[in-house]
Amino acid sequence: MQNKSDVVITGVGVISPIGIGADAFWHALLEGENGIRPIDLFDAHGLTVRFGGQVPSFDPKLHVRPRKSLKVMSRDIQFGFAAADLAMADAGVASEHLDPDRFGVVFGNDMIYADLDDLETTYRRAKDAAGTFSYDQWAEAIQEELQPLWLLKHLPNMTASHIAIAQDARGPNNTIVLGDVSSLLAVSEAATVIQRGWADVMLAGGTGSRLHPTALVARGNASLSKRSGDFESACRPFDLHRDGLVNGEGAAVLVLESREHAEKRNAHIRSRILATAACCEPRKQESLPTGRGVEMALRTVLKQSGLDTKTLGHINAHGLSTGPMDTAEAQAIAAVVGDTPVTAPKGNFGHAGAGSGLLELAASVLAVESGTIPPTRNYKTRDPACPINVIHEKPMTGRPNTAIAINFSTMGQASVVAITAD
Q: What's the rounded Cα separation, in Å, for the pair 247 and 352?
């Protein structure tokens, strides 16, 4: 059932390890292309794991305006900015044709780590001849060495801020920094803003680069795949032989509009948002999530959307490729929707943190529009502990043009979004 209060998706913008732009991204997913490659953004020889889902040949000068803004943009921010431009172009709308007060931005972001080059001089100044680190000298060096605008490169809210300035989007603006569930929560908030009548158009996005050298050192490699000799097959969501996640990077942005606004400008509607939900399971800090949050969120979104196992076309899973997280998620999915087909795009491009949720939702937007669901790359052997119907080897057709995307964090949060072809 359609009505004027519907929230529809009219544009998709993607920056990913398997393609820039919606068309390139979609073709790569259908072909099962690989985006995992040796890291060459910096000298990675000191790392135990030296591969990841790196975006190749990304030139920010081709995307960022004004160009001087690059001085205060991290790689994450550059990705988000570029994806927003691509989404606007895909939607066939120019910001000057929108009411700026009813045009807003909500973004999911990771914490952005400081660049080592920026801190090297200050660090060296803070060490005495014996090699002892002095916080007093550090504080003095920071004030003298770092440029005043240095911090702007590392504030998570700056992605939404730069986009809003460039697009003249003066409406609601927010940033959500909640790890892996950030960007689907951004979609939920952006849709709610439109439904409440506060905006006609919203850019909902997510961006992240887990390949930053500081981030890689800070997070460690305990949860990473160690398949250095076969890195193209390292990210194996739900597969029996998975041995860990693969870090990646990327961004995606959706243009959301009220149906009334989209139809008034004769926009091409790619899909429609049916419902969103978010839940968090209580747990002890030393325990891993059981998947209860995923199960609760799925049941909620099914009830709100009116979908059931007969009308749901596919699940787009978080599919982190770690043993306990995949098991918890798979068992929650199976408990709620049985053998509904599941796809997990991280097999193609790895885990982009806050960027992953929107990259994955973008894949489902394109899937429900085309009637084709891309397969899960590297899924070979069924894991009895993951009792779900994983799409693999080739794309699937003939399913209802509806989907639910899931994100799931190690802290127990779950966020889900249900969509349908319009």
A: 6
